[in-house]
């Protein structure tokens, strides 16, 4: 999927874009927009000044919380309300990866584009998504400026990280289970754009990562430990990560001793994938690790 191009030249007065599951053509700039399956595209649309008429209104990050009132709810993260979407008469539907199977049905309602980020290619796919949205909504200059600003932020933090040669583990806990994610994962941005070296390698593309133990983390001795609490991300609870990782094995690591354990923003790293604001938050999470006081 990730190998497909996202953009194609416009024809005459129409707007034509390619995306991972096909092509969409618009006779004019869409006005009525529906977002399904996630908050990443909603996040970027917000930065571009585009207001959807319908979106998922649950589990919104604080800075997008007003969409719970100003947009119509069109279902959950995993299940779209097709009847509600139809009644909104959208000019375009932007569907995120959880809606891949629903693409044929969504496409029968209105032109639909897929907003997808593959494991291992966060920034490359994110740029394609931003450019796709910029082209659809006649915001190409704004999208390019956003990309340039973000790449400058990446470069600034990357220089700090590489100057110290920081090695990291990126882990996620779901209850008491702990999984490690490597360079070909949802955390690829840490290694590819932000310059961290893996304290242990993993080439798995399993979206749930590799199960590991606290002993594994202690043995890996990471300079930086990034922790994502999945339960907090999906709103099941306030999360157990802080308590779970407060133990002697974690305290034996350089990450703990040098104040470089970072509890990641759960929404930015899990629900708002490839969003413009979310990507900035991700960079700031990495900056915390690079600038922590000894």
From TrEMBL:
GO cellular component, one term: outer membrane-bounded periplasmic space
Keyword Ion transport among UniProt keywords: yes
Localization per Swiss-Prot or TrEMBL: Cell envelope
Coarse class of the protein's main subcellular location: other
Family, as annotated: Belongs to the bacterial solute-binding protein 8 family.
Swiss-Prot/TrEMBL keywords: Ion transport, Iron, Iron transport, Signal, Transport
Keyword Iron (UniProt): yes
Domain of life: Bacteria
Organism the protein comes from: Photobacterium sanctipauli
Record protein name field: Ferric anguibactin-binding protein
Residues annotated as domain Fe/B12 periplasmic-binding: 33-294
GO BP annotations listed: iron coordination entity transport
Matching Pfam families: Peripla_BP_2
SUPFAM superfamilies (alphabetical): Helical backbone' metal receptor
């Amino acid at each position: 999927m990730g190998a497909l191009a996202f953009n194609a030249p416009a024809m005459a007065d129409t707007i034509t874009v390619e995306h991972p599951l096909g092509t969409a053509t618009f006779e004019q700039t869409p006005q009525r927009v529906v977002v399904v399956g996630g908050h990443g595209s909603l996040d970027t649309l917000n930065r571009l000044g585009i207001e959807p008429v319908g979106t998922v209104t649950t589990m919104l990050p604080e800075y997008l919380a007003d969409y719970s009132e100003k947009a119509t709810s069109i279902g959950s993260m995993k299940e779209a309300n097709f009847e509600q979407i139809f009644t909104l008469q959208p000019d375009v539907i932007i569907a995120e990866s959880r809606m891949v199977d629903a693409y044929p049905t969504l496409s029968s309602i209105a032109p639909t584009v897929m907003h997808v980020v593959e494991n291992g290619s966060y920034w490359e796919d994110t740029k394609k998504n931003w450019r796709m949205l910029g082209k659809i909504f006649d915001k190409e200059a704004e999208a390019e400026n956003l990309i340039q600003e973000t790449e400058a932020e990446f470069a600034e933090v990357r220089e700090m990280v590489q100057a110290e040669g920081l090695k990291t583990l990126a882990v996620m806990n779901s209850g008491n289970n702990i999984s490690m994610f490597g360079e070909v994962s949802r955390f690829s941005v840490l290694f590819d754009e932000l310059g961290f070296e893996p304290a242990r390698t993993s080439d798995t593309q399993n979206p749930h990562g590799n199960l590991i133990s606290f002993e594994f983390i202690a043995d890996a001795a990471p300079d930086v430990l990034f922790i994502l609490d999945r339960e907090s991300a999906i709103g099941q609870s306030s999360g157990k990560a802080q308590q779970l990782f407060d133990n002697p094995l974690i305290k034996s690591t350089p990450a703990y001793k040098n104040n470089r354990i970072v509890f990641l923003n759960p929404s930015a790293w899990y629900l708002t994938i490839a969003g413009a604001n979310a990507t900035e938050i991700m960079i700031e999470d990495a900056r915390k690790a690079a600038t922590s006081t000894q």
